[in-house]
Amino acid sequence: MTLCSLLLSVGCRTPTPAHQPADTDLSRPAKVVSPDIISTGDHMVILFSDIPSPFQYDVRVLQDGNITLPHDKKLAAAGKTAGKLQDDIRLAYVPQLYRRMTVTVKTDSRFYAVSGQVRGPSLQPYAGDMTVLRAIAAAGDFTDFADKRSVELTRANGEKFIIDCIKAQRDTKLDIPVYPGDQINVPRRLF
């Protein structure tokens, strides 16, 4: 079975982007992602205080899950809570560079967007364990003019998937997960 036929069998009519691992199985159940856990692509502000010159640092979690901080400190951030990352950052600087230091990590609020032919297009707060059909339901469901067979999901990293929501309603394995920063667009049906 080719990759394209595998994707067609799970309701996705767009080939998997080359930068996504070939063994990714969209038919697996949606993994639960806590809104408290830092993910790739997340933006955060890190406050360094209780040092001679306090400062704040804006950083985005890279696709490899790491962040790079001042003094060329590279740390893993994805998969951690803000509190755990604060502890790890502090350990990277104390006592090597500072005798004491307080670190505060503030992450942006996490949202996903639903637009197009839904009754209430909007940004929705991400609360974990979200799928395309649940996201559309949270936005008021489809309008009468929605093309339910060509719903587009665009990941925060630019990956795009076309979901046949009619098939996904019959087979929950085809209802793929939605993560913070994702955008769902329901196009208008052509008559």
Offer a quick outline of the entry.
By secondary structure, the protein is an alpha+beta fold. The protein has two domains: 3-31 and 110-186, Roll (Outer membrane lipoprotein wza fold like); 43-107, wza like fold, CATH 3.30.1950.10. 17% of the residues lie in helices and 28% in strands.
Structure, explained:
This protein is α+β, with helices and mostly antiparallel strands and 191 residues long. It folds into two domains: 3-31 and 110-186, Outer membrane lipoprotein wza fold like, CATH 3.10.560; 43-107, 2-Layer Sandwich (wza like fold), CATH 3.30.1950.10. Helices cover 17% and strands 28% of the residues. It is built from four helices and twelve strands.
Spell out the blueprint of helices and strands:
Blueprint: H1 3-9, E1 43-49, E2 55-60, E3 66-69, E4 73-76, H2 82-93, E5 102-107, E6 111-116, E7 122-125, E8 130-131, H3 132-138, E9 151-154, E10 160-163, H4 165-170, E11 177-178, E12 183-186
Parallel strand pairs: 6-12
Antiparallel strand pairs: 1-2, 1-5, 3-4, 6-7, 8-11, 9-10, 9-12
User: How would you classify the helix and strand content by structural class?
Assistant: alpha+beta
* Strand-residue proportion: 25-35%
Query: What Rg do the Cα atoms give?
Result: 20 Å
What is the CATH superfamily label of the largest domain?
Answer: Outer membrane lipoprotein wza domain like
Give the tally of β-strands: 12
Overall mean pLDDT:
82
C-alpha termini separation: 34 Å
Largest sheet: 5 strands, mixed
Say what the CATH topology of the largest domain is: Outer membrane lipoprotein wza fold like
The assigned CATH architecture of the largest domain is: Roll
**What's the order of the H and E elements?**
HEEEEHEEEEHEEHEE
The low-confidence parts are: 1-33
Shape: elongated
Summed up, the helix count is: 4
Assembly type of the chains comes to single chain
- Determine the fraction of residues in helical runs and give it as a percent range: 10-25%
Number of domains: 2
CATH class category name of the largest domain: Alpha Beta
Q: Numbering strands along the chain, what is their spatial order in the largest sheet?
A: 7-6-12-9-10
